[in-house]
Design a protein that fits this description.
The protein is an alpha+beta fold. The protein has 2 helices and 5 strands, in the order E-H-E-H-E-E-E. The longest helix has 9 residues, at about 65-70.
């Protein structure tokens, strides 16, 4: 691993996906301090900037299908990047989420940190 590699972890907000999820409503659930911001990104770019683990790995895997394989059918799947304020010494570390709603009404997905310099 390089200093910029970060593991994936699971995120879950049980019972909080009973209505359409937006990037803004997801960001609000994170309860970040003042000054943080978010943006939505193209779903197909979630894995693009990550290096493959081996010569035969596909770094451009279908991200929504990967999340759906883990959690079942999802609705409102989104790629959301959450940024620290520019004044934060670690502002190059961007929290990236690939999240959606389950048919049971939960918000679930995967999270990692991308170092964007």
């Amino acid at each position: 691993m390089s200093e910029s590699d970060r593991p994936f972890d699971l995120v879950s907000f049980p019972g909080q996906g009973s209505t359409t999820m937006t990037a803004a409503s997801f960001f609000a659930r994170l309860q970040k301090p003042a000054g943080w911001s978010f943006e939505t990104r193209d779903l197909s770019h979630f894995y693009t900037a990550l290096e493959p683990a081996s010569a035969t790995a596909d770094a451009n895997a279908n991200a929504p299908a990967t999340v759906q394989a883990a959690f079942g059918p999802l609705h409102d799947v989104q790629y959301i990047a959450v940024h620290k304020p520019d004044s934060d010494p670690y502002h190059a570390e961007v929290d990236v989420y690939l999240v959606g709603r389950t048919t049971c009404g939960d918000i679930v997905g995967i999270h990692s940190i991308a170092v964007e310099t």
